[in-house]
């Protein structure tokens, strides 16, 4: 923490607010938090440093939307998600910081592509199919372990299945709360979460609360289409920066 500059703290503070906002309103904005953490911290450490803040945001989202959850959908996803997380753990264990940083950038660009594909398919494709849960679960598990960026994959799955807004938010909240808790022992074992990273989390938790407060009030008022276009633009810019 002592080595962080004022700009680093500003980036992390904005990222914390966006975590809360993403958990209670527009999930796609969470990709920006991933990019901001990776810009302010070493890429490997950024993944673990962000995870406790995501879990705190998950707790706020679960509290807000706890009655709107489809447990059958989650049970179909969890086995393949676990496999994806384990694959992500193996990947993190063998790559260096440069590869990790570029992987995060590449994953975020893939998130954008998935989002655009989702928009094209959501109105015409509402079938889930037997292959959807295992495939999307595997992708969500790997991307959330490597880059805390499984939100777009999960969003694609839920929207393609025709979930209404509240059921979407409630199911996603419980999904990431459980999955992110599952990731904690692996992150600790890889040295991505330690005492110093937890002190950083304590300094930033107020930002998550602020973002969650704002998200609850914006969810029914915001022009989602315009907002998502801005999110995609900033995510692409941040991703290209990580790929350098």
From TrEMBL:
UniProt keyword annotation of Transmembrane present: yes
Topology of the protein relative to the lipid bilayer: Multi-pass membrane protein
Cell location: Cell membrane
Keywords, ordered alphabetically: Cell membrane, Membrane, Transmembrane, Transmembrane helix, Transport
Top-level taxon of origin: Bacteria
Main location per the UniProt record: membrane
Spans traversing the lipid bilayer: 12-41, 77-95, 102-118, 138-159, 166-186, 198-215
InterPro entries xref list: TM_pro_TauE-like (IPR002781), TSUP (IPR052017)
Record family assignment: Belongs to the 4-toluene sulfonate uptake permease (TSUP) (TC 2.A.102) family.
Name of protein: Probable membrane transporter protein
Species annotation: Streptomyces millisiae
Lineage: Bacteria, Bacillati, Actinomycetota, Actinomycetes, Kitasatosporales
């Amino acid at each position: 923490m002592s080595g962080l500059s004022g700009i680093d703290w500003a980036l992390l503070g904005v990222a914390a607010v966006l975590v809360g906002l993403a958990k209670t309103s527009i999930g796609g904005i969470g990709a920006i938090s991933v990019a901001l953490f990776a810009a302010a911290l070493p890429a490997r450490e950024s993944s673990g440093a962000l995870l406790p803040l995501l879990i705190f945001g998950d707790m706020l989202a679960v509290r807000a939307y706890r009655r709107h959850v489809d447990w059958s959908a989650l049970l179909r996803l969890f086995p393949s998600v676990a496999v994806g997380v384990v694959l992500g753990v193996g990947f993190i264990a063998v790559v260096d910081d440069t590869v990790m940083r570029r992987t995060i950038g590449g994953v975020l660009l893939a998130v954008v592509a998935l989002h655009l594909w989702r928009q094209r398919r959501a109105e015409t494709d509402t079938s889930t199919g037997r292959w959807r849960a295992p495939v999307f679960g595997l992708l969500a598990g790997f991307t959330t372990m490597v880059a805390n960026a499984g939100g777009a994959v999960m969003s694609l799955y839920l929207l393609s299945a025709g979930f209404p807004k509240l059921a979407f938010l409630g199911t996603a909240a419980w999904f990431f709360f459980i999955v992110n808790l599952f990731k904690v022992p692996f992150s600790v074992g890889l040295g991505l979460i330690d005492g110093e990273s937890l002190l950083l989390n304590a300094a930033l938790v107020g930002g998550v609360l602020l973002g969650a407060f704002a998200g609850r009030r914006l969810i029914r008022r915001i022009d989602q289409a315009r907002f998502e276009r801005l999110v995609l633009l900033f995510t692409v810019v941040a991703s290209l920066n990580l790929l350098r």
